[in-house]
Each structure stands twice: as C-alpha cells, then as structure tokens.
Automatic annotation (TrEMBL):
Belongs to the iron/ascorbate-dependent oxidoreductase family. One of its GO terms (molecular function) is oxidoreductase activity. The keyword RNA-binding does not apply. SUPFAM superfamilies: Clavaminate synthase-like (SSF51197). The keyword Cell membrane does not apply. It comes from Delitschia confertaspora ATCC 74209. Transmembrane segments: none annotated. GO terms for biological process: small molecule biosynthetic process. This is Clavaminate synthase-like protein. Keywords: Iron, Metal-binding, Oxidoreductase.
Length: 348
C-alpha cells in the first residue's frame, strides 16, 4: 500500500521581490523559506508572482488546442534529427506519443519543445538548414494562430520570475555580497543571476492521455506505464504550470516515498535541477519526480526550464564545499556540455 501523504510542499509568496518599496527583511524571510524548501524537498509552490490567472489559463488552453489538432497539422512542426535536409536540429519541435524516453521506457505523452534561439550569440540558425544540434530556429505551430505572440510574452514573464528565484537562492545560501568587478565565476550571491542572464531556457508543452494500465499499486516496480518516468530535471529551475488534474505529478521525498504535488490555482510548482545540485555541492538536491496520470481526462502541462547560460561554468561553490565537509563532489562542467549530453542521450 502506498503511504498516505504526510507532508505538503511549502507555498512561498514571492511578492516581496516584486515590490521595490518592500522592506528588505521581508525579502530575507521569503529567501529563507526558499532555502528551507530547497534543502528539505527540492520542490515548492510559488504564488504572488504577478502573472494573472487568465494568462496562465490561456497558456494551458492554447497547448490543449494544439494537441487536439489532427496529426497532419501537428506534424508540420515535427522534430527531425540535426544535420538533415528536413531542417531539424534534434531538439525543437513536436514529438509524437511514446517518442520521449525516460529511464529506458517510453513515456505516454506527446510534446513540443522550444528553446532559447541563438539570436545575437550566433548566426547559425540563419544560415541553415542543415542545422547543428540545438542550433535551428523554434518551430511555431500555425494553429492556434495566437500561440506564438501569447507564448513569447509569457516566456518574458516567466523568465523574470526565474531571475527573482535565483537571486533569492543566492541570498538563502548566505553567499557574500556582490562586489564591483565580479566575474561570471565570482562566488557571490549574484552568481546564479549572472550565469542566467542569457538563460538557455526550454519550454515544453506536454499532452498526457490517461494511462491504460489501471491496475497495480503505485509502489515503484509495480507500475508498467508512466506518463513521465522518474527523473531529475537537468538544469537550474523548473517552473511548472499544469491544468488542475490531481494525483498525476509525484515527488520523491527524502525517505524514498512518493507524494502527490497537486496543482494549486494560480501557483507554479518549482523544482531545482542538477545544475543547482552541482553548484551547491549537494547541499540542495535535485529531486526525482514522475507523472502517473490515471484520470479520465487529457492532461496538459507546460514546464518552463529556467536554465544557466549555454556557456555558464558550473562547479561546486567553495562555501558549499565547506558546508559539506570540504570535498568537492562534482566535476566542473559547462551547462551547454551537460545539455548536449542529455540531448544526444534522449534525456536518459
Ligand atoms: O507534467 C508534469 O507535471 C511534469 C513534467 C516533468 O517533470 C518534465 O517534463 O520534466
Ligand atoms: Fe521534470
């Protein structure tokens, strides 16, 4: 028997960071709550972020509308391998049901991925096809017609929330204040802000039909089909928006048990990814989670992955190494190298 949930994830109000008049002490308190949530769960809810509910509902409704279109419409933005004449870059576009693999199994989901475009960083996407991996342009659906402008506006808003959160995380770790002349790698409290100033974000629209396998308990091992298999997110921060379907997303607690992280109207579910675990030398762990959607409806979610800059150097911070006994547990890497490894390995 699965254990009943015994805890709830913290709900953190980040409005003190949106108000320039807000006393610093209130920001410190919110930052401390974020630090506690990162340490204890790696997951929390965020409210008070300033994006109105109507906008959030529209994001989900447009994704749902896209998934309800005929396959031939969806395949107009099909994802193709990099280097080919179809103009794919191996990462952007639509993936049909069962194409995504987690932990060696096919996930029962369809999805569309968008990434930061290189823009001023490189003119690769203007020169192709063929495109190198990750270097193509985003493939925007023709329908629903408003999807592109509405989502582009949303991306700017959600990036601003990501910036607030990584700033608060530097405060929560009590890193030293930033000094003039700080470099990308200076280990002060702005380190996550600087290393996400060209955030190589990913936004994924996911559609989940109900799982057919209705039998069996929810203990790991008895489950044959997953909507999304157990995994950690590989970057910095995930800001998850989903429709109201309960009992779908589950988070693994430190004792190994799984807890539902049901949606709360108007709030994002936030979790930290592998790059934050690496920067903090494991003081904050990137938490495993999975989706098991056995309801009768078609579930839609839109995670936004607020990631480091492609060239960000990620290595354990000296302060965190000291906190964990003096040994650095992770190699130095760049986010781009880590991401390319994930793309080539189908995110396993
Ligand atoms: O759909 C969800 O609730 C979560 C999806 C997820 O964990 C992911 O795409 O990384
Ligand atoms: Fe995830």
């Amino acid at each position: 028997m699965a254990k009943p949930p015994i805890e709830n994830l913290p709900i953190i109000d980040i409005s003190p960071f949106l108000d320039p008049e807000c006393p610093a002490a209130l920001q410190d308190l919110a930052a401390r709550d974020i630090g506690y949530a990162c340490q204890q769960y790696g997951f929390f809810y965020v409210k008070g972020h300033g994006i109105p509910n109507e906008k959030l509902d529209q994001i989900i409704a447009l994704a749902r509308e896209f998934f309800s279109l005929p396959m031939e419409e969806k395949e107009k933005i099909k994802r193709y391998d990099a280097g080919g004449p179809e103009g794919g870059d191996g990462a952007r576009g639509y993936q049909g049901m069962g194409e995504n693999i987690t932990d060696g199994k096919r996930d029962v989901q369809e999805a569309v991925d968008f990434y930061r475009e290189w823009g001023e960083d490189s003119d690769a996407e203007k020169n192709g096809p063929p495109f190198k991996t990750l270097h193509g342009p985003n493939l925007w659906p023709e329908k629903p017609e408003v999807i592109k402008p509405v989502y582009l506006d949303y991306i700017e808003k959600v990036k601003a929330i990501g910036k607030i959160l990584v700033r608060a995380m530097g405060m929560a770790l009590e890193l030293p204040p930033s000094m003039e002349g700080a470099t990308q790698e200076s280990e002060d409290r702005e380190i996550f802000v600087r290393n996400t100033d060209r955030c190589f974000w990913v936004m994924r629209l996911i559609g989940y039909p109900p799982l057919e396998n209705q039998v069996g308990s929810r203990e790991e091992g008895d489950i044959e089909e997953f909507s999304c298999g157990a995994h950690t997110d590989y970057g910095c921060l995930t800001l998850l928006l989903s429709d109201p379907t309960p009992s779908a997303l589950q988070v693994q607690l430190r004792d190994g048990t799984w807890m539902n992280a049901d949606p709360i109207k108007g709030a994002f579910v936030i979790n930290i990814g592998d790059m934050i675990e690496r920067w903090t030398n494991g003081v904050w762990k990137s938490t495993r989670h999975r989706v098991i959607h056995r309801g009768n409806n078609y579930r839609v979610s839109v995670p936004f992955f607020f990631e480091p800059n492609f060239d960000a150097v990620v290595k354990p911070l000296g302060e965190c190494v000291q906190m964990t006994g003096g040994e650095s547990l992770y190699e130095k890497t760049t986010y781009g190298k880590h991401l390319l490894g994930k793309v080539f390995g189908n995110f396993i």
